[in-house]
Structure formats: C-alpha cells, structure tokens
Design goal:
The protein has helices at residues 35-48, 82-90, 105-117, 124-135, 141-148, 152-160, 166-173, 179-186, 190-200, 210-220, 270-291, 363-399, 406-419, 422-433, 447-458, 462-476, 481-485, 496-503, 508-529, 541-557; strands at residues 13-18, 22-24, 54-60, 73-80, 95-100, 223-224, 266-267, 298-301, 319-320, 332-338, 345-349. Strands 1-5-3-4-2 form a five-stranded mixed sheet. The chain is of the alpha/beta class and 558 residues long.
Length: 558
C-alpha cells in the first residue's frame, strides 16, 4: 500500500492513512470501552501495529476549489475500527492501514452498528440506540433484523430498551441493573417503571433476583384476561378503552415484545383493567338490585385473613353455600370484589353468634388450618428459644475461662464461614445497631461491611475474637432451635452450639421450659377455635403467658 501525501488525499481504495487525518464519526453510538481490553490492544499495536484495515469515509470540502467538481478531501471519519484507531493514537503510530469508501449516512450507520453488535463488550443501551437510528431507514422489523443478522424478537427487545426511564438507564449504565432486569422493566409504562425500580432495590446486593422481579410484575401489572369478569369483546364497557381483543396492550397482540409471557391473554394496563372490573361490578350490582326488589348484593372478598376494603366481608367472616343449601334460611347473596373469582355472584351465610366461620368449615380444611397454625407457632417458639439461649451461653463462657477452647473456636469459625449469608448478617446488624440503621435501600445496605467494622472494633485479642465469632454464629442459628434440641444440624452432623453448651453446663431444656408452656396453651386455643379440641380453662392466654414468665423468673432466681 502507498502512503498518501498531504497534497492530494485519496477518496477511495486501500491506503496507509495518517492518524492525524482521522476523526470520530458522529454516527457511532458506542460510548464505553473495556479499560483492560483497551490496554491489551494498545500493547499489541505497539509491537505489531494495526493488522486489520479500518473503514474510513472521506469528508470533502464544502466549498470545492475551482475546477474540482467533487471538492477535495479534508479528513476521514472512522466508520469501522474505532478501537484500533484510538489504540494507534495512544501507541503514537503515524499511519494506519485503511479502506476508504464513499458512503452515505445510512450506509455508514449500518456498518458501524454491525461492527458494534459483533463485539462482546458493547453495552445493550448503545446497541439499542444504534438499532433505533437504523430503524429510521429500515422501518420494517423483518428487514432490519435481516440486515443485522438477528432474530426479529431480539431486535424488538433491544429497541424497547430505549423506552427505559432516565433513572433506569443511569442504573443500567452504572451496572446497578442487569440486562434481564432492564428488558423486563422496559416493557412497562413510565409509572410502572418507577414502582418497579423501587422494588428492584430490595435485594440483598441492592438488586432483587430476576425471578422475584418477574413475579412482582406479573402480580401487579400483568393481569390474566381469562379471569376477567367482563367480556373481552365488549367495546361499550368503557368506550374510550374499546374491546380487549384488539387492544395493543394485550400480550397476545405483541408476541415479539412478550415472547416469554406464557398467558397470551394478559393485560399490561392495570388501571384500564381495574376500571373495567369496577364498571362491570357496578353494572352487575345494579342489575341485581333491579331484579330482586331492592335486595343489594353484599360485597365479599376471597382474600384470606384480611379485610382489603372497609365494608367488605373477608373470607374468614362468611361461609360459601352451594346447591340446595343456597335456598336455606339465613343465606345471603354477595359479589366478590377482591381476590379470586372477582365479579362472581356467590351465596353465603355468616356464622352464628359464638362461633367463627373457621369453626364451621369442613373437617379437612380445619385440620389443614390447624397444622399450618401449629407450624407457625413452632417457628415462633424456636425463635424465642434461640434468642433466650444466646445470653445464657455467652454468660457461661464469661464466667468460665472467658475464652473458647481451641477445638470450640475451630468449630465456631468453620460454622461462621459456612453459614454467613445475607439474612443472617441483616439479623445481626438489626440486633446490634438497631433495625434499619445500616444505610438505605437506594444506597445499598452493606451489612457485611458493618459486621466487619464491628469486628475490627471489638476484636482486640483471642478472647474477644472467640466471643465475637460465637455471637455471630448464635444469631445464625436463630430459627433452628430444633437442631440444638436434637444435638445435630440439618445435615445430621454434630451441632457445634450444642457441644459447646454441653461443655459449659448450659441446659437448654430448663431455659426453654416456660416457652414450651406458653406455646402449648396457644396451640390448644388454636385447636379449640377450629372445633378440634376442648376449650382451654384456667385463665386467658395472656394470663397463662404471664404465669409462664413468672415461673421462668422463679427458676432463674433459684
């Protein structure tokens, strides 16, 4: 190849071009480069030079000289090989090999985009901006996808990234938002994106798992139309919205943007969906009122253990009646306004005075509810047992030698390493520093950093190190007192906490006895309420718990 002179610059062909004549193209949307990879490229260029041709576009004089119809070339825009050019500048090369082509903006943009998307380190937002610019020329998605050698679904999803709100884009640029999260958020409206960004910040590392994000979006913004109480073809329910069957906000109408949504009849506009549900329920209630001589439908909810709206019967305040029993005295008619079967008319009866709706449920249901209640009570009991065990064991060690034996310290150290996870660190920080004091969701709560800081403050010698490690490990065992009772952990190995306690003379059974009595009373009362046990006599639950505490205090003094 021939090196050109400054007198006459070529407008086409392959040449060695002076680095000083090269300029960056304004059509290139790529803004980020991997620092380490760039340093490696510079080192290679210093030794071997630029081995692959750059693609350049000549920029000619706006006011051509007399006798020169096309104008003279002033400099060149780098269309392909941006990194190689920058590396050549850093390596102080005088010339680089290049292929000079007279390209239109559209042709240059296409080459730039194709080169960028073929690189592994190009940011998806840069890729999205490039597709958006290219789509102005190739408006047909199939044609655009064919030009860049990608599937239409891939191109559609990348284009959608341009719809991210600015806070989401900034988080994505900084690496605070992963690609799979950004793709999910980009499909939402602006208000929904704001809500979702707040939810995203609730993860242990500042970002919730993608599965949890999808569940949040599905639960709050994607509503299954198959369960809608209104006709999807009804264009008059809310005239401004029109029928759901032709709505572009239905996932089934945009499969390229929602290829992963299993339920194709899903609404992505909760406000419109809720408005249609509310209108349908109001219409149903009015029709019933007109046809039943002024008898109104009672609003009921199928949501368990809470009353979502004032004046609405919660599901534990009534019993559904079906078949012949629906015509029995005392049976009322209601309409479901919250939960499953929303908009459905149901027959129900309210429990008689002195009995709860739960006690009138079928036997199998009551047994299942009791088992669930017992599991919840056992979990609370184990938590209290563990919290009660911590100070006793620490005090026993302080009253002894004041430090752990070598084998005990090894056990605790191994356990701390194996069991140090986010929830435990959060629990420890909440107990030591106070709940919610370690940073904020937006800042990213650094529980590990807080624990390390505390360790550096309290650990001054082997004794304090031993107590710190034990304290940390005991908090990790909260919720697993059954393992201590059985003297083995969940993997059927000897439980180190139990072994240390045994060596120190700590008897957990005696410490936990009042809790066993307290929770025994609670379980009996739960069975009684469900009609599966005899009423508990001898005072209220609070009274029995007070006696249990008094007993514990007496035993402690003894």
């Amino acid at each position: 190849m021939e090196t050109q002179t400054a007198v006459s610059l070529p407008a086409s062909g392959q040449h060695d071009v002076a680095v000083a004549l090269l300029r960056e193209s304004g059509l290139n949307h790529r803004k980020t480069f991997d620092k380490q990879k760039m340093e490696e490229l510079v080192a290679s260029v210093k030794v071997h030079g630029v081995l692959e041709n750059l693609i350049l576009r000549p920029v000619k004089c706006v006011s051509p000289n007399a006798g020169d119809e096309a104008g003279e070339v002033q400099f060149y825009q780098v269309i392909a090989g941006n990194r190689r050019w920058k590396a050549a500048v850093i390596a102080k090369l005088e010339t680089v090999p290049a292929a000079i082509r007279d390209l239109t903006d559209d042709e240059a943009r296409e080459i730039i985009l194709i080169e960028n998307i073929q690189r592994e380190d190009v940011h998806p937002l840069e890729e999205a901006e490039g597709y958006l610019a290219l789509s102005r020329t190739y408006q047909d998605l199939e044609v655009l996808a064919g030009k860049v050698g990608k599937k239409p679904t891939y191109v559609k999803l990348r284009l959608q990234l341009n719809q991210l709100i600015e806070p989401a884009k900034k988080a994505f640029w900084k690496g605070q938002l992963h690609l799979e999260h950004a793709l999910e958020i980009a499909r939402l409206t602006e208000d929904e994106q704001k809500q979702t960004m707040k939810e995203c910040a609730g993860g242990w590392d500042g970002l919730i798992p993608i599965r949890r994000l999808k569940e949040f979006i599905q639960r709050n913004f994607h509503l299954q139309l198959t369960k809608a109480p209104f006709s999807l073809e009804d264009a008059e329910l809310i005239p401004a919205a029109g029928p759901c069957t032709t709505c572009p906000k239905r996932t089934g109408a945009n499969t390229l943007l929602f290829p992963d949504v299993k339920e194709q009849d899903t609404c992505t506009d909760p406000k419109c969906f809720d408005a249609k549900v509310g209108t349908q329920i109001a219409n149903t209630k009015q029709l019933w009122l007109n046809s039943h001589h002024g008898e109104a439908l009672v609003p009921v909810s199928t949501v368990r253990y809470r009353n979502p709206v004032k004046g609405v019967l919660s599901c534990d305040e009534y019993e559904i009646v079906k078949g012949k029993d629906a015509k029995a005295p005392g049976v009322k008619s209601g309409i479901v306004v919250a939960g499953d079967d929303i908009g459905k008319i149901v027959s129900f009866r309210e429990p008689q005075k002195g009995t709860s709706a739960a006690a009138s449920q079928p036997l199998t249901t009551r047994k299942s509810n009791l088992e669930q209640k017992n599991r919840e009570l056992e979990t609370k009991q184990h938590n209290e047992e563990d919290m009660l065990a911590v100070p006793f064991l620490v005090q026993a060690i302080k009253e002894g030698t004041g430090r752990l034996a070598l084998d005990e310290l090894v056990l605790v150290a191994h356990e701390c390493i194996a069991r140090t996870y986010h929830d435990m660190l959060k629990r420890y920080c909440d107990a030591i520093f106070g709940a919610g004091t370690i940073g904020s969701v937006k800042e990213g709560r650094d529980y590990a950093g807080a624990v390390e800081k505390r360790a550096s403050e309290v650990v001054k010698d082997p004794v304090s190190l031993s107590l710190f490690l034990l304290e940390l490990q005991l908090f990790n065992h909260i919720g697993h007192s059954r393992e201590i009772k059985e003297a083995k952990d969940r993997y059927s190995k000897p439980n180190p906490i139990y072994l240390i306690a045994k060596n120190r003379g700590v008897e957990f059974d005696k410490i936990w006895a009042p809790l066993a009595e307290k929770y025994g009373v609670r379980k009996q009362r739960a069975a009684s309420r469900l009609g599966l046990g005899t009423p508990v006599k001898g005072g209220s639950e609070k009274g029995n718990e007070k006696k249990a505490r008094a007993g514990k205090s007496k035993k402690t003094k003894t």
